[in-house]
Each structure stands twice: as C-alpha cells, then as structure tokens.
Amino acid sequence: MTTASTPSSLSQTGTSTDPLRLIDVDHVRFYVGNAKQAAYFYANTFGFQIQQYADLTTGSREEASYLLTQGNIRLILTTGLSKDHPASEEVMKHGDGVKDIAFTVFDAEKTYEKTIANGAESALEPTTYSDEHGTVIKASIKTYGRCIHSFVSRSGGYALPEVKKGGRISPIFQLSPNLTINEYNKANPCGLKYVDHCVANVEMGKMNHWVEWYENVMEFKLFKHFDDKDISTEYSALMSKVLDSGFGVIKMPINEPAEGKRKSQILEYLEWHDMTPGIQHLAFRTDDELTSVAELNHRGVDFLQIPESYYEKVWERVNKTLLENGHEAVKEDHERIRELGILVDADDEGYLLQLFTRPLQDRPTLFFEIICRRGSQSFGKGNFKALFESLEHEQERRGNL
Fold first, then answer.
1. Under 8 Å CB-to-CB from 273, ≥6 apart: which residues?
2. What is the CATH number of domain 192-398?
3. Whole-model pTM?
4. Cα→Cα distances 316→331, 346, 349, 389, Å
5. Correct CATH for 22-186 of 3.40.50.2000, 3.90.45.10, 3.10.180.10, 3.40.50.620
6. β 221-226/237-244 pair status
7. What is the pLDDT of residues 118-130, one digit of tens each?
8. Do the domains at 22-186 and 192-398 have one common CATH topology?
C-alpha cells in the first residue's frame, strides 16, 4: 500500500466528517480498444473537448488515456498497451464500456476504509500520485461485474476547482495541443452539463442483492422502485430500483430482467457482455433538450426512433398531470419535439424530456441518454412502454429478440 496522508488543504467548499460524503462525479472511465480513435468519435459526435492525454510520450508505459470534458462531465478513455493489461483483457471479453464511476471525496483513504469496513472488496488500495503542483489520492472498490468505484481526493493544482477550470486531472496527464475539433466544439456546443444518472444491468434475481450492497457499503438510499407492471410490453419486461447518493451527486438505477414471452433488452445486454453485469447507459443532463438533440442529430448521433403514434396521446397525458399538480404545461415547441422524436413525461414535481441513442458500438451494450428536467426527478415512467417497444424493434432488427 502506498501511504497517503490527508491533504492539508482540500480546496473544496466546506468540510465533512462523513467519509461517504460524495462531492461530485470525479470522472467516468471507459476501457476501449483504441483510446485515440474513441476520443475523436466522442468529440465529433457528442461535442466533448479532447482536453488532456497520457501515453508513452508523457511517461505512461502501460496504458494510454484521453480526458474528455463537457460542462461538468469528465470521461477518461483508457486503452491497454499490452495484451496483459486489464483493459485489453476486458475489451476482448466485453467490448468498449464503462469500467469506473469515480467520485471526488474529502479523504479517499478514509472513504476506502469505511467501505471496506461496510463489506466492500478492494480493487485498489489508497495510492498517492503527486508532483510539485499537487496531490491526487485514489482508492477503488469492486461493485457489480466488471465495474469499480474509485474515490479520489485532490489538493493543490489538482484540486477539483482547478480541474474544472481546465487544470490537469493528475500528474501523468498533459494538456492537449490546439485541435481543430476542440475549436469547432466551442463554436458549436452540444450543451451537455453533467452526469444525471448511471444505469446498471444485472442478472435475474440479483437486483436486490446489489441494492442492498449500495445501501450497506456506500450508504445510498432507495429512491424509486419500478416492477414488471411498470416496465413491460406484450413481449418483455424488466424490474428496476433506483439508488440515490444524496446531495444531488448521482442516482444509480439497477435493472434485472423479468419473465416475458421474448428476450428482454437486459438479457440481450448480458448475452453480448459475456453474461457479466455492467453499465447499460449514462444519462447526460442538458438545460435545453431541443437544442442539444438537434445539434447531436446534425453530428450524426444515432437515436432511437419513436413511433408517430406516441405523439397522438402524449400531450393529453402529460399536460393533464402537470395541471392537476399546479404546474404550467410543457413550454417547449410541441411540433419540434415530435420532429426530433423526443419523449416527454410528467409527475407531481414537473416534467422531463429525454431521448436515447442506439448502442455506441457494434455490440448492443452501452448507450447514452440525453435528459432535461423541468422539475421532475423521475425517469420517464410514462414513456416506458413506447421506449421498450422501440427497443424491441431494434432487437428484432439485430436478430436478438
């Protein structure tokens, strides 16, 4: 174990005696087959800045990584530089996908020790990375399947406020040179702000196990529960429970398949993911769904196609719910919503707009959601049927239904 002392200056607002007080989503790390090429894909299609990199030229001998940023979203794409690197082995088994949902904390060592005491299994003991500019302390625990959670505490030039202003994320990274794609993305923003939620797919019968794991190990709270009556079509169903980290940091729905006439999207994911649980999708928040989706469409993002019949009843349902709960009707242009194929839902707190991409690689596993919240903190329960019928159509096109 590398000894890591508590940073003398956290450079974050406030302090906390609770080691499981999460400050932010520090970053989401993907394991990918070719980090350089993947970086340009996400920059071109989703508008991310290729902000920093770590490779052989910066002294990273075992892996190459690229830091992509947009708003408060930080994605790190990592490729192993040898066949024995864990990223190489996982990409062979699972394809490109999410490895690590990392959280900024006040003291990574204390957070790690608390989760281990709560029953977690270690993935990385507390390790210090430092130079003359500052210090990063990182520790990790295992969660479902291939995934881990890292805890990151920062000081000096690597403190989170400095990273948010464009400072280096850790000592091994260097700032990217001037890139044409970065300039284009500054001039043509996609408007993605931060990670709203992160959805996991687990095996049938294991949802409650992992819900209890998050409640006990991470001390998350159960936020919502959807059963197969809520999320079903004529052919397939799933069940889902949503865990809340608290303090508005992140929500983590956990899905498991349910019995149905045909194969559910969860089972399809598992079969193409070496029957291993993992992250199904990341949801990115925007303040302007129509502008974000239009720009992403222009860049070639491949979204699910929603049937025209969906819009025959959606406004009556949504606006009725809003008016009954004392809210104004949906303010966005209804016809433009239909043209862009955006889903709309409402509850007692307000409404939301959302749209889902098709899988981001050839295996039908990881995809993104673009979501805008106008008060509602739910997940589009009223859209489940239309969404899952669209997903079943896609499964049928792939020969996996």
1. 94, 95, 97, 145, 201, 363, 365
2. 3.10.180.10
3. 0.91
4. 14, 11, 17, 20
5. 3.10.180.10
6. antiparallel
7. 999 999 999 999 9
8. yes
